[in-house]
Amino acid sequence: MFEDIKKTIDKGLDIAFMNAEKLAQAAKDLAKENKLNREEAKKLYDYLVEKSDETRHNLEKELQALVKATLKKMEIPSQEDLKKLEARIKKLESAGKAPARPKKVPKVVKKAKPAAK
Length: 117
What we know:
The chain has one domain. It is mainly α. The N and C termini lie far apart (89 Å). The mean pLDDT is 79. The protein is 69% helix and 0% strand. Helix 2 (20-33) crosses helix 3 (38-73).
């Protein structure tokens, strides 16, 4: 019983990430195994395509949210942040104001050590 459940789950996960050709073959195989007529097989195929697209879409959304959160934690600016900065720089440049320059850090000069005698 447990093995049958595992097989069903595995088959479901496999189907979620199949291309159209493989989905058609899976639907054909399932229809044959379950002795479905042509109309039922078509409905099964349509259902598999719908669920596959839905699963792929949901996974994509989850991955995007995960990547966005990871980048935010790493403090990496987004494209939107960069575009805002570019717009701000253009605005400052067109107003005749140069972007603020960082303060110069004085150089540290090391004194030469006297030669050992």
